[in-house]
Amino acid sequence: MNIYVINGPNINLLGTREPEIYGKETLKSISKKCIKQGLRDGHDVKFMQSNYEGEIVGWIQNAIIEKVDAIVINAAAYTHTSIAIHDALKSYSGFKIELHISNPHLRETFRHVSYISSVVDAIVAGLGADGYSHVIELLADLQKHYKQKNKSLNTF
Amino acid sequence: MNNNKLLIINGPGLSDLSNLNEMGYGHLTLDMVRKKCAETCEIFGIKMDFRQTDDETELSRFLIEGIEDFDALIINPVGYSHAPSIDFAIYSSAIKMITQQNKPVIEVHISNIFQQDVENTKPIQVPGGEVGFVSGLGIHSYDLAIRAVNKKLSKN
Q: In this entry, which stretches build a coiled coil (chain A) (predicted)?
């Protein structure tokens, strides 16, 4: 499988930014783990991070053009503001998971709204940095589930 | 591993999963979910206690057992947050106590509760608590949660 792992603003500060919430693991370390886990399972994982909304939209559009099998997206603060990312994800028909390191629903109320949750297949949050590797580990199974889901949806 | 007792609670209505078939999650029964959980727990040497109840009072008793007798909790609370008869405080205070004991707690849902065709279910509110959240992966929501529990227990 070809997988894009897309990370939004401030995720590059992992390890130093509010470690009591986001943990001590750096983005580089998470990225290495994801790529390694992917290699083990025969996936091609591309791991990216941007502080710019437009660049993230561009990557999602690229995933559409390249027919990427799955997107794992931690849009960080853009989760709660970006209609542009919502629209881009809506146009992407592959398997898509919204991921967060902490659980936004247990934090400030401005984090309770997600523009992304309604256009993805699933949400994984609050499992720390390990959330990434757990998702990659199960992606093959998850994609099967997704195909089955769409197949049965199409029968209506 | 001594700290390996996992309580899995399934809330009201989950004895019948036929409504999920219509949403495209395939033909799922709670017994299939239980078997899949048992398989995954066996891989990791976790002792699983898998329960379901339609009775809110019994559910509170399960949660209190979770505080006293278990090392980790996975809960599918279904639509607790929009059922008017339920005392939310029971959920949030019991779950908060479990997280304060540094025991992993993960909320799971079979469907993506943020998609428009799903009833108005909201995530559990445990302000300041550490609760994981997995929604929309079908039977694999439980699978991913068990893997995350195992990872957390092995770190404790």
A: none
Residue with tokens 């199974």: A141
Tell me, what amino acid is at A110? Answer: F
- The ipTM is 0.92
Helix H or strand E segment including A35: helix A27-41
Choose the weakest-confidence range: A52-61, B81-90, B107-116, B117-126.
B81-90
When mean pLDDT is compared across A71-85, A100-114, B121-135, the lowest value belongs to B121-135
Chain B contacts of A106, Cβ < 8 Å?
A: 125-131
Residue A154 is predicted with a pLDDT of: 43
A59 CB contacts (<8 Å, ≥6 apart)?
Answer: A4, A6, A48, A50
How sure is the predictor about B123, in pLDDT bands with cuts at 50, 70 and 90?
A: confident
HSE-CB for A102 with a 13 A CA cutoff: 24
In total, how many domains does chain A have?
1
Question: How do residues A127-145 score in pLDDT, each as one tens digit?
Answer: 999 999 999 999 888 877 7
Per the CB < 8 Å rule, is A134 touching B151? yes
Strands (E), B11-81: 47-52, 72-76
CATH number at residue A123: 3.40.50.9100
Burial A77-114 (b: 16+ CB within 10 A, else e): bbbbebeebbebbeebebbbbbbbbbbbbbeeeebeeb
Question: How far is Cα of residue A64 from the mean position of the Cα atoms in its chain?
Answer: 15
CB within 8 Å: A106 and B26: no
Identify the CATH assignment for B5-155 out of 3.40.50.9100, 3.10.350.10, 2.40.50.100, 3.40.710.10: 3.40.50.9100
Q: Give the gap in angstroms from C-alpha B56 to the nearest C-alpha of chain A.
A: 23
**Which residues of A are less than 8 Å from B132 in CB distance?**
103, 125-127, 131
A145 is catalytic: no
Domain ranges of chain B: 5-155
